[in-house]
Write a structure and sequence with these properties.
Elements: H1 2-28, H2 42-56, H3 62-79, H4 89-102, H5 107-126, H6 132-138, H7 162-168, H8 174-186, H9 190-194
Helix pairs in contact: 2-3, 4-5, 5-6
């Protein structure tokens, strides 16, 4: 009887290990971290988060996934080989400075990108791919303040003059024209109008 138990134990351990891997692939997009594993690199973290973002943000939110993809690509280019546990506040500040120097983003865009990097690390911490302390350290990096950075300010988006909209309406299809009128009356966003369905 003792021999039978001895034979069953390796099988139970193998089944438990297989179940752990299946759960990890479903929730983490990759194998679970092993004991003694040095952990994910930043590039691996970005890759796993992007798979999550593509599945989670769909339809009208597809632009959100594309935003994460662009920020993740920039992050991986600069810090891809670094262990995610070693990516700290100084690295995030250096990444932020590179974004400012590139001139691709205004101050608000850089702040949004930094927040997106933190969201990637938050996602990883919530799945126990990283210690929570890594995320807590990144949270200490403050946003760029107006007038205290060399980052350019973004242009303020102003509403389209009503007479421009009136001139455009006859050239739109009936459906798109109705969507424009509904936006003017309610202040809805284009994505909010696009997902409306009859009851």
């Amino acid at each position: 009887m003792l021999q039978r138990r001895g034979r069953r134990r390796p099988r139970r351990e193998a089944l438990a290990r297989a179940a752990r891997w299946i759960r990890a692939y479903r929730t983490l997009g990759g194998p679970p971290p092993e004991d003694g594993d040095e952990g994910l690199t930043v590039a691996q973290l970005v890759e796993r988060f992007q798979r999550h973002a593509e599945a989670y943000y769909g339809g009208p939110d597809a632009g959100q996934s594309q935003h994460f993809e662009a920020v993740g690509k920039y992050l991986a280019e600069l810090y891809g080989d670094v262990r995610a546990t070693e990516f700290g506040p100084l690295a995030l500040r250096a990444l932020r400075d590179r974004m400012v120097e590139s001139g691709r983003w205004c101050r608000g865009g850089v702040n949004r990108n930094v927040q997106s990097v933190r969201r990637m690390f938050k996602w990883a911490a919530s799945r126990e791919l990283l210690p929570v302390a890594v995320l807590q350290a990144l949270a200490t990096v403050e946003g760029l303040a107006r007038g205290r950075t060399t980052a350019r300010e973004g242009l303020r988006v102003r509403p389209v003059p009503p007479d421009h909209v009136e001139k455009l309406l006859p050239h739109l299809s009936r459906q798109v024209g109705a969507m424009v009128v509904l936006q003017r009356l309610t202040g809805m966003r284009p994505g909010e109008v696009a997902i409306l369905r009859p009851p």
